[in-house]
């Protein structure tokens, strides 16, 4: 799924490009959580959303892939916060991620109109 891993000899956990991607997912999910709390909805800039939709579609990302990333994100956050973890915290992170993923998936379905933009 990750084009930047195809030509790499690094094992995935050591790959700096994979780590950078994970940081982007984390930051965007944090932004989604803040927006949900402040506005009750997640709004991603149109240019960013078109780019994300295009990249995910081009790389063959499917519905189950979003679930795998969600589970990895929640597991990572749970490990990082340790004793502060709660089911409510997990639900909040899950909701923020789901809202972000839903916006990307909508754009993926609209991709034929946006295929020439980078």
UniProtKB/TrEMBL annotation:
Gene3D superfamilies found in the cross-reference section: Globins
Organism per entry: Hevea brasiliensis
Signal peptide: none
Protein name: Globin domain-containing protein
Keywords assigned by UniProt, alphabetized: Cytoplasm, Heme, Iron, Metal-binding, Nitrogen fixation, Nucleus, Oxygen transport, Transport
Pfam families linked: Globin
Domain Globin: 1-109
GO molecular function: heme binding; metal ion binding; oxygen binding; oxygen carrier activity
Domain of life per record: Eukaryota
Keyword check for Disulfide bond: no
PANTHER family attached to this UniProt entry: LEGHEMOGLOBIN-RELATED, NON-SYMBIOTIC HEMOGLOBIN 2
Annotated Gene Ontology cellular component terms: cytoplasm; nucleus
Family of this protein: Belongs to the plant globin family.
InterPro entries the UniProt entry points to: Globin (IPR000971), Globin-like_sf (IPR009050), Globin/Proto (IPR012292), Leghaemoglobin-like (IPR001032), Leghaemoglobin_Fe_BS (IPR019824)
Main location: cytoplasm
